[in-house]
Amino acid sequence: MVYIPGFLVSKVYERGSLRNTEDGFEFCFTNRMTPVRISGMRDISLEVDGLHYSINKLRLSLGGRLRNLSGGRLDEVVSFARNSKLIIQVAGNQLPDGKHFIKINFITNEYGGATLKVSDTIGEIELPSLWGRIKNRITGTGKEIQKEPLSIKGELGGVPLDPDFSRLEAVLRREEPDRVPLFEAEIAIPIQEWFLGREISSAADELEFYIRAGYDFVPVLPPFFSPRLMRTASDTDGSLNEAARERAWLTESEGIIKSVKDIEEFPWPSPEEVDFTSFFEMAELLPPKMKILGMLSPAAIFGNCSQAMGLENFSYALYDDPVVVEALFELVGSTYVQITRRLAQIPRVGAVFMSDDLAFTEGTLVSPQVYRKYVFPWYKKIGEILDRADLPFIFHSDGKLWDVLDDLIDCGVKAIHPIEPQAMDIVEVKKRYGGKLCIFGNIDLEYTLTRGTVEDVERQVKKRIKELAHGGGYGLAASNSIPDYVKPENYRAMVEAGKRYGKYPIRI
Q1: Exposed, middle or buried by CB within 10 Å (0-12, 13-18, 19+), for 163?
Q2: Which domains are assigned to the chain?
Q3: Predicted TM-score (pTM) above 0.70
């Protein structure tokens, strides 16, 4: 599933759009982020204040045209242009005045499942106090007052909360900071909400999680997605829970892009259209020493190209139709270069993280020669931009990367993530590359975090810190990400153990 931070979801909802109509009520979403095209939606469901509404009560209007929802599906290709509005009309009883909680689920072929949770109000909104009205006049007659940096007190694993990006900068230089930093680029929203004990619906909520969980940064994504086909589990008997219904996987045998004509006709967002407002919103909220991790993801250059075609078709096209492969890499690669140029100018960005899976447990997905021809030249351009901006280049790929680690270093990569235990021995990686690369990761997602005990997690964290932290250049992280099927208590055990045992000098 494409990872979209919770506060980005709240940005597409049109606040104040919830209103009663003659035969029910309606609300609206506005695409402020990036043009998107989908080839259909299914398993659409709506709850308002916990009450489920039958699909035959819903009408979708996009671009002023009603869309037919036959059997809970939208069986047509639709494009969500920038600033286009999707209006959800619900037939039934009108809603009473007051605050209401809306939850809408759906699954798309291209992006898997999604859940949008927002709140809105019908009726009179409480007027500001006299002092509030005076402040509004002072600051510009009702304009929003400048946000204050978020300040969170507390501790984690016996260590006070003190987010400080210099800690991460030190390990990226392969030096020893005051303690081993925590590093995760993707943490599922349900895990974040469990940790906080409430829903995440704003940038401040997301930032508070990253502070309370002990991180020195918060990841922010400039949303750029290429088209891809995804599949989800069938739920014909109604036995799957919400998370299982939404979980999606990529198809390797088919894709949306098959020809140069498909590339030309797809509504790709231009680099200038990609929305960066979330970076500025988050920058206003950051504590003084915390920074943003800019995300070039999901799937970046190789992944966006191979997934748009389907890996199997892409592999055939390398030999049978290289023209379409070259055209696709030119479009996606040049877009990411332009996005990186914009990203390098954003205030409070401390490093850039690219996620682009090149390998599986046995080796690279395609020949390293393919990467050297089509992919690494774009990485190198990105690395040069980041180097000029003094922004460290952090790279993520699953799998066995021995054949391309030197290439990645040549492209300007300063750190590698996440070193899957089933694919590479992280101790050997540090032994061979610790003088050139910072290393993040390796807390096992296959068993320890998902099926192990809290004690298993603590033992593995201690072992990794003991093996890897001496001399610096190591950050604690899972061996991929923190998906929603990680045991929440195991996630907490990992970050707490990292704080408890990661203080320099290491004495384990």
Answers
A1: buried
A2: 6-122 (2.60.40), 160-501 (3.20.20.210)
A3: yes
